[in-house]
């Protein structure tokens, strides 16, 4: 199932939003509009809150899409961890005010207005950190664990390259964790497992700001959003290593079994021609399951490629049926990309043509290109895919404009970046 959260620092959404969620089967985590602050305890304020909560619950309680009513965003942890430097001697008063507002007032109103029996106010929320004092340093530190950081002496170029690499890092982090949850749906290891997906923070922005969102304020897709379209695909092969063994799990969210086969390819970073590929025999991937479909010691894989090493090779794989791909192409790094050997700076060109209201970008590359990012500036719209790997010389990507535009405007605005371009 898909879930959206209406955050307590924003607004109560209009009726049409909840109607669409009902129709499309999208579940809603609904916050009351209290976030990241300590609130007063005056009687007039409490009365105002009671009227607000009663109105919103009466307005929205009939929507089956709403699965959680949340009293606020992070206000309890802010109080318990003393984010606002309240004097220790005053904390009991603030705690008393918190209970009065959220338990004695908001919870009481919700229970009186809504007759739901399974409402549970003590759920274990996943706390997320935000507004770190050293946030930029932390992002670059994390990116530096896996990638060579931008080193341009041009401040504008350095800024753009830093945005690019942090977008790559965010997308990779959420991809890796979400794929772990998806491949764990059918097993329990050391008491952990039977997880089927992830509710990631966050979908969109309520104003223009640098944030965790996968959609910009104007609706433009960031790299994470393109990644999410792939790592939430109903059929997906997921690769990982454990004790020197490379595994691929097949994950199906479909309601019927699928007869598929797995293709595994190994490329040297400096060549578009695969050093090795293998195709499994067709097998049945059960509906609603995640199972191991391939395993091979990494050392054995490397030996089959001749001079292949962890540093100069990369693995890619996909599911197909009757020679038709039915999953995104996934990949597995055998080492951190900052240690990759042989990665070339590709020359990527695009030929743009128009088909009705859609534009076709015929891409061509001179070398393997990780994390290819296509951008058309301020022209609103989205690509059929973005942030992808090019391991073949050509690739076709579609662009869906949200407003009328022309081939000429796209050609003038088009810019492409891949990982090697920032070094």
UniProtKB/TrEMBL annotation:
Residue span(s) of domain Beta-mannosidase Ig-fold: 343-422
One Pfam family hit: Mannosidase_ig
Gene Ontology biological process terms, A to Z: glycoprotein catabolic process
UniProt keyword annotations, A-Z: Glycosidase, Hydrolase
GO molecular function (one): beta-mannosidase activity
Keyword Hydrolase: yes
Mannosidase Ig/CBM-like domain boundaries: 246-339
Keyword Hydrolase: yes
Matches recorded under InterPro entries: Beta-gal/glucu_dom_sf (IPR036156), Beta-mannosidase_GH2 (IPR050887), Beta-mannosidase_Ig (IPR041625), GH (IPR017853), Ig-like_fold (IPR013783), Mannosidase_ig (IPR041447)
Similarity-based family: Belongs to the glycosyl hydrolase 2 family.
PANTHER family registered for this protein in UniProt: BETA-MANNOSIDASE
Name of the protein: Uncharacterized protein
Origin species: Marmota monax
């Amino acid at each position: 199932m898909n879930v959206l959260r209406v955050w307590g620092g924003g607004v109560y959404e209009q009726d049409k939003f909840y109607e669409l969620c009902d129709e499309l089967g999208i579940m809603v985590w609904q916050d009351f509009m209290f976030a990241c602050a300590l609130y007063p305890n005056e009687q007039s304020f409490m009365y105002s809150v009671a009227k607000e909560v009663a109105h919103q619950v009466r307005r929205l309680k009939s929507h089956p899409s709403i699965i959680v009513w949340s009293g606020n965003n992070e206000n309890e942890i802010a109080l318990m961890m003393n984010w606002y430097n309240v004097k220790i001697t005053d904390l009991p008063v603030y705690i008393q005010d918190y209970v009065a507002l959220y338990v004695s007032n908001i919870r009481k109103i919700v229970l009186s207005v809504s007759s739901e029996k399974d409402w549970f106010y003590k759920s274990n929320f996943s706390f997320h950190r935000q507004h770190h004092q050293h946030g930029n340093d932390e992002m670059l530190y994390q990116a530096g664990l896996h990638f060579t950081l931008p080193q341009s002496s041009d401040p504008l170029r350095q800024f753009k390259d830093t945005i690019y690499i942090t977008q790559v890092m965010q997308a990779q982090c959420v991809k890796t964790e979400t794929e772990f949850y998806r491949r764990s749906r059918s097993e329990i290891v050391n008491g952990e497992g039977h997880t089927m997906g992830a509710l990631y923070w966050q979908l969109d922005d309520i104003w223009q700001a640098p944030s965790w969102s996968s959609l910009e304020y104007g609706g433009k897709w960031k790299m994470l959003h393109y990644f999410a379209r792939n790592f939430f695909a109903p059929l997906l092969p997921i690769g990982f290593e454990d004790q020197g063994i490379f595994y691929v799990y097949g994950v199906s969210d479909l309601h019927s079994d699928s007869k598929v086969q797995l293709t595994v390819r190994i490329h040297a970073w400096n060549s578009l021609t695969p050093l090795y590929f293998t195709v499994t025999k067709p097998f049945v991937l059960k509906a609603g399951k995640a199972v191991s479909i391939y395993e091979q010691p990494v050392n054995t894989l490397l030996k089959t490629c001749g001079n292949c090493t962890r540093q100069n090779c990369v693995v890619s794989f996909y599911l197909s049926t009757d020679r038709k791909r039915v999953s995104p192409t996934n990949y597995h790094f055998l080492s951190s990309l900052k240690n990759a050997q042989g990665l070339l700076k590709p020359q990527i060109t695009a030929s743009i043509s128009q088909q009705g209201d859609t534009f076709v970008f015929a891409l061509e590359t001179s070398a393997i290109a990780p994390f290819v990012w296509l951008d058309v500036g301020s022209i609103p719209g989205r690509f059929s895919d973005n942030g992808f790997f090019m391991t073949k010389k050509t690739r076709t990507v579609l662009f869906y404009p949200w407003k009328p535009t022309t081939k000429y405007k796209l050609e003038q605005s088009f810019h492409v970046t891949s990982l090697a371009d920032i070094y």
